[in-house]
């Protein structure tokens, strides 16, 4: 292996022997915390942004209202960094449980790993925990196609149980659930946006009551189910513990002519090879990064390039890390310095008890 920190190493291939016991079974999901994002304001352990599932009216027009959105309203930031998750880990009433995780990341990242999607990650390792976030731009734009999905969400949810659906598309508000579950021997914390929940969630706030909302445009004479990206939809839902996906099928004019509830499989055997691949990637990264996670207290940042069934890795140089974190909060590796300081304070407090 080259000692040049800027060189890329072919890190893992699907044909390599695994570093973990397989099959890596998914343990039962448990909601450990949550947070609301309202106009970029973070509220830990809050359901302020939570929405409840309601059945949509017939023949709703998902294109209605797009032309009235200003350019500013169509633009939004996609949260890629782990900062909100890490703040939740420090501030939540279940902080102690959250900080027992060995892997902390967004649900969407693990989904992409398991499906063999092309994705670039930035990774740091600190005190026995692997942290993964996605590399890429944060600014997003709501185009007419993606608007259909956002509009469908407004027609299928309400701010109150049994409330009225509808309303304007709001790209600045979302509710995120933090789920802890085992992946083989690893204790993994996954955080992801939840579109809405069933009314049963009020008394029993468990992942089984999460509802994923999706749309698929149906062209005349087309089998609407044939072109669904089911592998992506299902993995996204099952990772966080959801049990079903509610789908709207708008025609080319944007009118929803059909809806259906699709159940997520309970028998994971058909997708176990994908789950195993995810476990192999995480175990290999932990083994690799734990060898030398820092240099004189400065956490390293690795750029991890995942392609279909192989992984490349490269340690970023100081200039690259500086560019990655430029104009941002003070960081050590990819972690906010405030988070590391918070961990120290919690450790000191627990030792003094």
UniProtKB/TrEMBL annotation:
Domain RAI1-like: 29-339
Stretches assigned to coiled coil: none
This protein's UniProt keywords: Hydrolase, Metal-binding, Nuclease, Nucleotide-binding, Nucleus, RNA-binding
Example GO BP: NAD-cap decapping
Catalytic activity: a 5'-end NAD(+)-phospho-ribonucleoside in mRNA + H2O = a 5'-end phospho-ribonucleoside in mRNA + NAD(+) + H(+); a 5'-end (N(7)-methyl 5'-triphosphoguanosine)-ribonucleoside-ribonucleotide in mRNA + H2O = a (N(7)-methyl 5'-triphosphoguanosine)-nucleoside + a 5'-end phospho-ribonucleoside in mRNA + H(+); a 5'-end triphospho-ribonucleoside in mRNA + H2O = a 5'-end phospho-ribonucleoside in mRNA + diphosphate + H(+)
Pfam annotation, one family: RAI1
Subcellular localization(s) per the UniProt record: Nucleus
GO molecular function: metal ion binding; mRNA 5'-diphosphatase activity; nuclease activity; nucleotide binding; RNA binding
Assigned EC number: 3.6.1.-
UniProt cofactor(s): a divalent metal cation
GO CC, one annotated term: nucleus
Family: Belongs to the DXO/Dom3Z family.
Chain's role: Decapping enzyme for NAD-capped RNAs: specifically hydrolyzes the nicotinamide adenine dinucleotide (NAD) cap from a subset of RNAs by removing the entire NAD moiety from the 5'-end of an NAD-capped RNA.
Protein name: Decapping nuclease
The organism's taxonomic lineage, starting at the top: Eukaryota, Fungi, Dikarya, Basidiomycota, Agaricomycotina
């Amino acid at each position: 292996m080259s000692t040049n920190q800027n060189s890329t190493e072919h890190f893992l291939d699907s044909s390599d022997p695994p570093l973990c016991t397989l099959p890596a079974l998914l343990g039962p999901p448990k909601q450990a915390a949550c947070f609301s994002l309202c106009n970029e304001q973070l509220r830990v352990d809050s359901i302020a942004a939570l929405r409840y599932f309601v059945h949509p009216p017939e023949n709703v027009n998902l294109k209605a209202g797009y032309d009235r959105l200003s350019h500013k309203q169509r633009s939004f930031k996609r949260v890629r960094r782990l900062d909100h998750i890490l703040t939740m880990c420090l501030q939540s009433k279940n902080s102690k449980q959250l900080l027992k995780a060995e892997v902390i990341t967004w649900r969407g990242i693990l989904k992409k790993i398991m499906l063999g999607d092309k994705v670039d990650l930035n990774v740091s390792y600190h005190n026995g925990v692997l942290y993964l976030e996605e590399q890429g731009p944060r600014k997003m734009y709501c185009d007419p196609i993606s608007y259909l999905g956002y509009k469908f969400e407004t027609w299928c949810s309400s701010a109150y149980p049994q409330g009225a659906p509808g309303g304007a598309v709001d790209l600045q508000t979302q509710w995120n659930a933090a789920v802890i579950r085992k992946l083989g021997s690893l204790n993994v914390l996954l955080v992801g946006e939840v579109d809405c929940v069933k009314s049963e969630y009020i008394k029993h706030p468990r992942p089984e009551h999460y509802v994923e909302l999706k749309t698929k445009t149906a062209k005349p004479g087309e089998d609407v189910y044939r072109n669904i990206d089911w592998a992506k939809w299902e993995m996204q839902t099952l990772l966080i513990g959801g049990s079903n996906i509610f789908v709207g099928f708008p025609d080319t004019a944007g009118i929803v002519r059909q809806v259906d509830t699709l159940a997520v499989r309970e028998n994971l055997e058909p997708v176990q090879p994908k789950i195993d691949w995810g476990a192999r990637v995480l175990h290999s990264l932990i083994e690799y990064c734990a060898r030398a996670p820092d240099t004189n207290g400065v956490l390293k940042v690795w750029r991890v390039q995942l392609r279909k069934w192989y992984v490349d890795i490269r340690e970023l140089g100081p200039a690259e890390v500086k560019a990655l974190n430029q104009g941002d909060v003070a960081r050590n590796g990819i972690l906010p310095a405030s988070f590391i300081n918070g961990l120290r304070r919690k450790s000191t407090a627990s030792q003094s008890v």
